[in-house]
Design a protein that fits this description.
This protein is mainly alpha-helical. The protein has ten helices and four strands. The strands form two sheets. It has a two-stranded antiparallel ribbon with strand order 1-2. Helix 3 crosses helix 10, helix 8 crosses helix 10 and helix 9 packs antiparallel against helix 10. The radius of gyration is 26 Å and the shape is elongated. It starts with 11 loop residues before the first strand and ends in a 14-residue tail after the last helix. 24% of the residues are buried.
């Protein structure tokens, strides 16, 4: 007696040109017991249907302007903020103790190490911000969670669908992706903490510890808000962490400057906080 044949479900969707593309990889099909999902949900994100936004050529950043104006400003302005915070700590803190430690740094010519550590912070900042020149050429400022994508993929090979692939930004999957994006952002920016905490801590022990704690709190706030609320909400944590790392970088620069003989005005007779 023959067994009736069950009709195989069509697990494909139509791609551009009327071609069919399987929506399940072999691993996914095995995991799901050979069953295709009942329906393919369309993400609610505004870019789901349109894809990457179309940006006119005349609205894209000018390469020369970015290289000679924007890029230097990315280094100089944050460094100035860090130096201002560091100078406030030096002036209104335990100035006499700080200067005594700075004298030891100069005695052993360690100002070069302090300057090198500060340069690490500036270089990492520039390299992290430089891709913004290209990001603004493919994404708009109001592209929401699309801007959380570090990479934009596309399929290749025969019968490949002609569209870009980005993070799934909906629901719990989107939260998971953004939480990990924040983790990646931490690894992009933590070099100054690793190289600077010990050096700055020798001259400015308590302020250096506060900088590291503030940086950690900012990073966690960045991750929690990014995951829960999406792109934009993470800016609060970013600013806390950024200013903390800039302050640490400023302490390094201040110590290096003192070692190189730059006079630092202080209020040694004033109150110590």
């Amino acid at each position: 007696m023959s067994t009736p044949q069950t009709k195989k479900k069509d697990r494909s969707i139509k791609a551009e040109g009327g071609k069919k593309a399987d929506i399940l990889s072999p691993a996914s099909r095995d995991f799901m017991g050979g069953q295709a999902p009942e329906a393919v949900k369309t993400p609610k994100s505004p870019h789901a249907k349109e894809g990457l936004p179309k940006i006119e050529e005349d609205k894209k950043p000018n390469s020369t302007t970015f290289l000679f104006v924007a890029a230097p400003m990315m280094v100089i302005v944050p460094a100035a903020i860090g130096i201002a915070i560091a100078f406030a700590i030096f002036t209104f803190g335990s100035t006499a103790k700080y200067e005594a430690k700075m004298a030891l740094v100069a005695e052993y010519e360690m100002q070069y190490a302090y300057a090198a550590a500060a340069f690490v912070g500036a270089i990492v900042r520039l390299i992290n911000l430089y891709p913004m020149r290209y990001k603004s050429a493919i994404m708009k400022t109001n592209s929401e969670n699309l801007r959380s994508n570090m990479y934009v993929y596309k399929a290749i090979g025969p019968n490949a669908a002609q569209h870009h692939v980005v993070f799934d930004d909906e629901g719990d999957v989107g939260k998971y992706n953004r939480a990990n994006r924040s983790l990646h952002h931490l690894t992009e920016n933590h070099a100054i903490i690793l190289v600077g905490a010990g050096l700055a801590g020798f001259v400015f022990p308590f302020p250096a510890m506060v900088c590291v704690l503030a940086w950690g709190a900012g990073r966690f706030l960045h991750q929690a808000l990014y995951a829960a609320s999406g792109y934009g909400a993470h800016a609060y944590g970013f600013m806390v962490a950024m200013n903390a790392s800039l302050a640490l970088e400023g302490l390094l620069m201040l110590t290096a400057a003192k070692g190189f003989g730059v006079p630092l005005p202080s209020l040694m007779a004033g109150p110590e906080l």
